[in-house]
TrEMBL record, chain A:
This is Serine/threonine-protein phosphatase 2A 55 kDa regulatory subunit B. Belongs to the phosphatase 2A regulatory subunit B family. Keywords: Repeat, WD repeat. PROSITE patterns: PR55_1, PR55_2. It comes from Huso huso (Beluga).
From TrEMBL, chain B:
Residues 85-96 have a biased composition (Low complexity). Belongs to the IER family. Residues 67-109, 121-265 are annotated as: Disordered. Residues 139-163 have a biased composition (Basic and acidic residues). It holds the Pfam family IER. This is Immediate early response gene 5 protein-like. Residues 199-212 have a biased composition (Gly residues).
Amino acid sequence: MAGVGGGNDLQWCFAQVKGAIDEDVAEADIISTVEFNYSGDLLATGDKGGRVVIFQREQESKNHPHSRGEYNVYSTFQSHEPEFDYLKSLEIEEKINKIRWLPQQNAAHSLLSTNDKTIKLWKISERDKKAEGYNLKEEDGRLRDPFRITSLRVPVLQPMDLMVEASPRRIFANAHTYHINSISVNSDHETYLSADDLRINLWHLEITDRSFNIVDIKPANMEELTEVITAAECHPNQCNVFVYSSSKGTIRLCDMRAAALCDRHTKFFEEPEDPSSRSFFSEIISSISDVKFSHSGRYMMTRDYLSVKVWDLNMENRPVETYQVHEYLRSKLCSLYENDCIFDKFECCWNGTDSAIMTGSYNNFFRMFDRNTRRDITLEASRESSKPRGILKPRKVCTGGKRKKDEISVDSLDFNKKILHTAWHPKENVIAVAATNNLYIFQDKIN
Amino acid sequence: MEFKVEAHRIMSISLGKIYNSRIQRGGIKLHKNLLVSLVLRSARQVYLNDYYQSVCLNAQQHWGTHEEVMDSDQPQSASEPAGYTATTPAAPAATAVSEPGLPAENTPPELTIDVESFTESHAAAPTEEEEEAAEADCTDSKEDKSSGSDCRRQRPSELKGDDAAPASSPTAIPMAEHLVPDNQIGPEGEEAKPPQDEGGCGEADAVGGGDGDSVTETQLDNQLGASCSRKRRSSEKAPPPESPVKKTKRALSSTPTGEEEMDTANVSSLITIFGSSFSGLLSKDSTQAEAEAEDSERDSGAAQICCDQILKNLNPWTTAIVAF
């Protein structure tokens, strides 16, 4: 069986699934972002209802020393609420577009979460002790009458049940006219960038009333608009470098040392279009939906509708690797346009060692590509194939001709079951896959 | 031929998407609508290419059959003569002057309103070329106002279509500047003014062709064959004046499919609703106009307000983008 992600004999098995089993999925429960923190112990998800749920991996138990800990709910909080822009008579959705963890600096954890207009910095802290024995107030909070106090005592910390609190420490608002699509924490751990359709702003984590605009592609005459920014990310090592992708399938790398306003790119990545494959929808499918740097910082990966491309930052004229995710959809573009599926924004991710990449598809399929062996595998996130520690069976889509057993034909694919968001543990072979309202956690088989 | 059908279908779908994006939660998504407009533009180019080719190829045959079609449609169009009297002044004075044009022809209010709704005030690019081309065509059509003009009317659009194809910068729409003051004069539109009509029609061609942004042109092009053929039919009689909105409704319902192989009624309705709806997006006044435009029976007074309101908001789509 083909293995992807670090070894020839790697097999993926089901570990956990979170979320309701109902067929009727409430729109608010649809997961809209998934992100591991830097250590991989915490896994955050955001949904369309504006809620953030954080899972924590429990310590490996002594009873099962070889099995990894399970992810259990650590904290749940409402990050964003629906708002109304009175000036434009527009409702602002509370859907969480992105979550990005901040590097941990003390006992508390911090993350940035954003909806279309506002970014919030949340601090998640634990409290497992409380002080008892105050002089001026009773245990229930009532104030004691000062005249009744005859002696002083020192309050004592007593253990209590663990309580995880999330509090919004910073709110970065009113800086974006258009819909925010990306946030990215800089490697200096002091700044971060936020990108909307036409502009990218640079923030300092401590300062909420100001941000620097570093990219502005809004034309003087909006009728001349031809492309928008679709994703942006800071370089993992060089705090002066960032990239942003466009709806035209191009990526621009900018160096903030060159100018205050990075309208002129330092590098421009574009693959020439194949004229033989032009159609009505060529422009839509070339629009990049996600861009991610490799952990090393040498490569970056872009996801467009049908493929994933790996670029070497030193070569601008074409990607070094291209992987077809679901090429069988190329002949169905018209139908996908009609049902709006062609506008789906798939994300992609690297594994910890940059040897494999993963992205989602339809019918709850997700694909992994091993960059070294050039092997790929299609797996499915479904309840049916989710036996505890059950090995996932590779799936195959039949593109034409005779359908073999266990293959699924293109016309049978369920386009409502799409995997847009996936995340790979930074150090281990553990992946989190969001399938509509369910979060699946898979891990490699431990022999 | 298949490409034309497919292109037309894609254009209808795209317009529907743009319309629906108005009511989606969270506001208009710029990225998605940009992509939809790109598809619309591609489809329009294919549609125009095919349409022009097929029309020119069939021009010879149409000469004979066209008059028959016109005669047979006369009883039908008799009930909606008013469709051709409104907003005649819409025809820009600039091009109207030199047009002998067809007699007693009026730009259908449907076309006019749509044109005004979607015309964009771009920086002037090949404005003069458009006007000249339109004038030349309209002059020719005086001599032969039957099917040949179909081809000729389409020509300026086609020219502009080609020009506009690769360019992302939009071209000038001369009609925009002319239409606003003219259209305020609602009641005057009831008089038949042949030169202006011809100019109007030609101008519509120019507008339809010149705009690099596909939204405007698609509707205009779809409307074009319909409106021009209606104009020719109504030239047979003197149309009594009627309220603009009623004309709009009847014009909509009677979108001819005789000459055109495509059924444009679908697209026409979408366009009209779309145009007035976008007006509503922008201001309270426009909302009133939208409500009025979409109601079925109106008196001329309200209709006049409706026209004025819509006409004031020339570029709902682009203005919406700008406002957004």
